[in-house]
Structures are given as structure tokens and as C-alpha cells.
Structure of Diguanylate cyclase:
Amino acid sequence: MDTRDGLSCLLIEDNIADAQLIQFLLDEADGTPLAFTHVTTLNEALIDLSRDSFDVILVDLSLPDSQGLETLETLHSARADIAIVVLTGLDATETAIGAVQRGAQDYMVKGRGDGQLVKRSILYAVERHRANQRLLLAEAAFRNIDTGIMVTDATGKVVRVNPAYCRISGYRQSEVIASQTNVLRSGVHEPQFYDDLWRQLRETGAWEGEIWSRRKDGKVAPEWLRINVVTDAVGGTAGYVAIFTDIAFRRRAEQELLRQATTDPLTGLANRQLFNRLLASTIEQASRYQREAALLFLDLDGFKAVNDSRGHAVGDTVLREIAGRLRGAVRVSDEVARLGGDEFVVILPEVRGRNAAAAVAEKLLGEIKRPFACDIGAAHLTASIGIAMIPDHGLSQDQLVHAADTAMYQAKRGGKNAIRFFSGPVAAC
């Protein structure tokens, strides 16, 4: 307790002589200086307490406007954050016990002991009260914070968990207390992960990072975990405090943002941004393992007539149905994307030559020519598909997209509802 600047005391004593004697004795005593504000009634004290703060209240229980333990109850109700020491002429054990039970830190009989003893009792009372206030505030934070907290002893045995931990993990306190911290083990991380965690704790006194833990219901979920070593006054390990933050919601939000950023909102297919990443990955894998791949560029024939005659709502329905057909006609390992309008692309990351790529394209043409669930009137939908082979027609995204697009336009100029492989020189892009 830092008392170098002294303590402020509110003295509530209706006997002027007793008040002066108390102040004289405490002023004469060695140690921490005490500054007094003296009032003679409980009402005056309450007014002062409403506008000022004090380190300690010295009170006589017999006042003109209040008597006995009710005086103490009123003071404690008004300012439970201030230490209270009872200085009274009543030498009654029951009253002394009642005073402590109602919030007093000490009970002293006037005339018993010198100023040094009284001052020491006051200082101890203030320190006990401050320590208790710190514990109360810490306990309130421990219980009410949304972050899960686990406290263990030096061997890793759990001694306390807060309500947030129970809410996050699904475990009751009784199921966790006295257990070892292997409750954190989810089966996702390798044993080396935990060995490294404890080694860093021993070396630095802290560890922080993402960890997967298993809930009581068996589900595995991501958490952000921070563990700190708790040391005693001489540096020995007294235990550990682990703080858990449930990041499953954040992870879902991140995944949703990623989905929105990489998915075509109309069809649910990959959008242009994701297509570029997938094509780059396909090129890299094909080059590394020296295998063939293909890019199919598909543009619908007759879609403008559907939009013009049946409206955009029907047009959107047709595009969604086409997206489903394309996705269902290729392998799980193949990728389908919509670049915009009625333009689609299909990445075949592994094909056995031009004949295999052409077979997939023919299958796609057949899917598009099938009747549609919605009424598209007299319009007749087909598609023109251009194919670029990897590595024959390029090893860059720009080269391959240019080649497949060029081949698609050759298919349109040749009468539509057709497939064309790129046949020109590879562009130097």
C-alpha cells in the first residue's frame, strides 16, 4: 500500500473532546500522516461521502441522529468502497462481531491503546479493505467476462474455470475442476504441437496462438488461446492462467466474406477472381508434374433472345440452371466459373489429350441443348465452346484465356453449337 502522501480520514464523532483526543493521538504517532475531516452527525457524513472520497471512515456508533449497528449499515450501504473502523466507548463482544459482519474492518474501544496502536490498526484496516476490494473486482471480472478463463496449479491441474469457459466448452465446472489440462487436447494437433507449447511456456512464461479444442458434445472448434505462467514472490511457478476466445464465429464470418468475394452471386459458381487463382494453380501443377490440362471457354448461343422475349427474371433462371448442368457434367476435380453475362469457363486440371477435352465439351453442348424447366418461348439455346490446351497453347493465364476466347469466336463464326480448338500462333503475352 502506497501511503507516502498520507491517508484521508472522515471522523464521525459527536463528542468534540473525544474527536480532538483521537486526532491528537494519531498526529503524535509515527508513520503515515492522517488528514482529518470531522463531522458530528451521520447526516453530515453522508453529505461529505456523496461529494468526496476518503481512505478510511472512523465512526462512533452513538450519534445524535443514529445509534448502534444501524449507523454502520447506513455507512456501508452508502460507500462500500471505503474502509470503516469503529471507535466507540462500548466494550461489547457481540457488538464488535456484529460490526465486522456489517462491513467494518476493525472495532476499537476508546482509551484502549496509544496512538501508535490505533494508527497501526487503521493502516491494517485500510490495507485489508483495499485487498478485499481488489479481490471482489477481480472476481466480478472473472465471472462476467465473455472470455473463457482456466486457472491451473503448477502441475497443470485445473483449480478454477469461469462461467464463460463452461459456456464455450459445454463442460460443467465439476467436470473440469481437478482434471489435467489434457481437456484441451482435441486430437487435431500432433503431440509435437503441445510439446512446443509447454517448452515455450517454460522458456518465456507465455504462449499465444490458435488452437483447436474439443467441446463436450464432441465437436472440434477453433479458439484463440493465451497461457501465462503465474509466479510467486521469489519467481517460482505457482500455476497457469489460460484465456480462451471462441473464434468459430469469426472464422465463419471470414469464410462467408471469402465466399462472397469469390462466388458469382447469381449462379453460385466461382467468379472471375477465383477463376484466375484456379487457373494459375492449374498451370503451375501441370508444369510441375508435366501433364496436360485444358481451358474451355463457353458462350451461349441465343441467350439474348431469351432475355429480350422473356425478361431478365427468366434469363437469370436459365443461367442458374445452366450453371447447375455444367457443374453436374464434369468431375469434382474440374472447376466451373462464370465470368459474367452468358460466358462460362471450365478448367480441366488433368486430361489425356485433345480427344478427352473434346469429349467433355461435347457433353456440355448436350447438357445445354436439353429443354429448360422455365418457358423460354421459341428461343433455342446452344453454345459455342473454345478450347485451349496446356501447355500447347500457353503457360500463362493471359495466353490461355486469349487462346480459348479466340477459339470460341471461331466456333461462333463457323455456325455456332460447335467446338473449336485454338489453332493460331501462341500470343506473346
